[in-house]
Amino acid sequence: MNPALQAVLRRRLSKRGTGPLAEDGEQKSRALIVAGGVLASLFLAAILSAGGLGIFVLAQYNSISHAVVPPEQLIAQLPRGGARIYDRNGVLLYEFVDNLSGLRRPVPVGQIAPDLVKATIAVEDPTFYENNGINTRGFIRAGVENFTPFLSGNFLQGSGGSSITQQLAKNVYIPSEQRTDRTVDRKLRETVIALELTKKYSKDQIL
What we know:
- By secondary structure, this protein is mainly alpha-helical.
- Helix content is about 60%, strand content about 5%.
- The chain has three domains: about 5-65; about 70-105, no CATH class; about 110-205, Penicillin binding protein transpeptidase fold, CATH 1.10.3810.
- Helix 7 (about 165-175) packs across helix 8 (about 185-200).
- The radius of gyration is 34 Å and the shape is elongated.
């Protein structure tokens, strides 16, 4: 091949490698590398955040569950609701009614009319005998109502959605001054306690 022609071809080839198209390709490559690095960083951050959140939740659960004592210990400390005065023959003379707790006379489930028990379960917690201590449907409904202000009107002002076991947890394990608090912390403690009670006691014992 003519040496002059070879020189022209070499010049053209060298220009192709340094022209606008080549520069555009290099810019795209750099952009892809940067985008890949950003995505990798975000993915790693998400994994670390999820791991940290999981550790935090587990620590909170263990902290609450370890404080769950047998409910009968706490029930024995609750006010009995008034007092009765008897004469020496055992005849009831007078009964004082507690203004806060009213008349409280604990009775075994076996002494309560079965229809009343069924009605209570149907109204308060239809899945009581099947659930793990949490009424899932009620829990989800309450979550939507409380955390979606445009459905409930006010944040954390929706219905409770507590199961019977959660109600036991609230009335026995949560201090009386905190039972009306509509906070995530109180609901979290109530939920963990309900799960632990379901592990340790039968449904009839809880009821």
